[in-house]
Amino acid sequence: MNIIVCAKVIPSTTSVTIEIDPTTKRMVRKGVPHELDPAAASAVEEGLRLVEKHGGAVTVLTMGISDVTVGIRNALAMGASSAIHILDDALAGSDTLGTAKALAAAIKKEPFDLVICATQR
């Protein structure tokens, strides 16, 4: 069973002061430590449990600036077999629809049996 997990990597807010860009009104992410979202980590764990039971591999999919690679490395350290990082400046600040389209396009490139996405509470 080949599983892909859509894993969100988020800025760590525990160790830094958040800055807002006065022009874009968005958070300045460059240089801010990032981490795997707790819900995404749970999704990776579930994928790994399924692979342990049924065989196969877990691929982690995320999109964002180069700083999110720490979250990807965390998922790989958990046991994911591979990762896909969508890194495109044109997608910076994408809305939900733009993000969904980018993730869907990446998912369609490989024959995955199951797509796991985490949710926010």
* Count of discrete structural domains: 1
Regions with little confidence, pLDDT below 50 for 5+ residues: none
CATH topology: Rossmann fold
Distance between the termini: 28 Å
User: What is the helix/strand order?
Assistant: EEEHEHEHE
CATH architecture type = 3-Layer(aba) Sandwich
Structural class by sheet pairing and helices: alpha/beta
CATH class: Alpha Beta
What is the beta-strand fraction? 15-25%
Mean pLDDT: 87
Supply Rg. Answer: 15 Å
* CATH homologous superfamily heading: HUPs
Number of alpha- plus pi-helical segments: 3
Number of strands: 6
Principal-axis shape equals: globular
Strand order of the largest sheet: 5-4-1-6
Helical coverage, percent range: 25-40%
Q: Main β-sheet: number of strands, strand sense, barrel status?
A: 4 strands, parallel
The gist of it:
The protein has helices spanning 38-54, 69-78, 96-108, and strands spanning 2-6, 9-11, 34-36, 57-63, 82-86, 114-117. By secondary structure, the protein is of the alpha/beta class.
